[in-house]
Amino acid sequence: MSKRENQIVHERLWPTTVKKRTLEEIAVDWSVSRERIRQIEKKARKKILQQYRKDLNAITSTITQTVSSCEELTAISQLPFQLYVTNLRDQRIVTELCLLVNEHLYFDWKSDLISGKGEEWINQICHSIRKNVQKISEDKLFSEETLSTAITQVISHNKLNITNLKHPLIDKVKEREKITSSSDLLCFGRINKQDKIVLAFESCFPEGLKIHKKRDFLLKTLQEYDSKTYRRTNPRSIIARLADHPDIFLWGRGFYVHRKTVHYNSDLVKRTSDWIIQRFDQGHQKFQIDLPFNYFKEEMVQGGIPNEYALYTLIRTLDNARIGQRKFPSLVDQQSETDIYETVVEEVENYLFVAKRGISATDLKKEFPEFK
Questions:
Q1: pTM score
Q2: Contact 211, 152 (CB under 8 A)
């Protein structure tokens, strides 16, 4: 190759740096256009292929046959010959040489994976694993065992080799899906402070806690659980984060519990939701939660739903767009002209009526946290 071709090969196909140079950067060095550099690179590739076609065809054919026999995905270490490639530059050289013959091959050296259908096939497998994890675990946080089970299911479904792929796929999924860990649990993405509070609450109060009457006790317990995280936290911010988390259920007046510790009849909740919709269809634009609770009261108690607060929470988990829930205990038909904020005003009026005294704005905000 010419001096220019040789430089472009080293800077574009197997650079010594982590990031290869762009066509434009090289074009500036040689005072030519990007298109001219692309043409020279293409010509250099053809020269390499022409010089080593026989060897490359033999090696790539073996790799392709091996990968094809494993449903287009296997571990690099399982190839019939060993690729003793330890540094990034050599990995790039092997990859680029194989791509000259088969453009569909994709080497993931970090995770020890090789795909016969490009990077997209590995990404699809990782996405399927993530969906399986979310099916197995309803929580945002999950265990290593859950991840392992999800990977096994995806491998089995796609008829892949579980012996060769399980550990490489664990590494790949953690990298691609940005899985982080806290203690013995994993999470897709960053584990934020709210998640940590929920995790601590589940560990410290497996039976739940009547939070509003034990604020100081809640904070003291969490500080003993993790003094560094909760050293400068106040009870109000902890309660706000707990109340706003989908895994924490309001299971009584001021009583919160983690969803894992409660067992209820989900079919009954769905039937109750359908019953509420029927009432809306009959022209009842707004009513309170005690109406459906009392209608199914005997079944509610037997089905693990002890009171109206629990039912109100479970109705919210269904995420039915028609059932408006702004403030306990009101239910509003979202398709009607009723302003859902009117129900909050009614609750404030009732609160003031029962109090029979002047109420400070601070006390109102505690009772109605949705007010700004």
A1: 0.66
A2: no
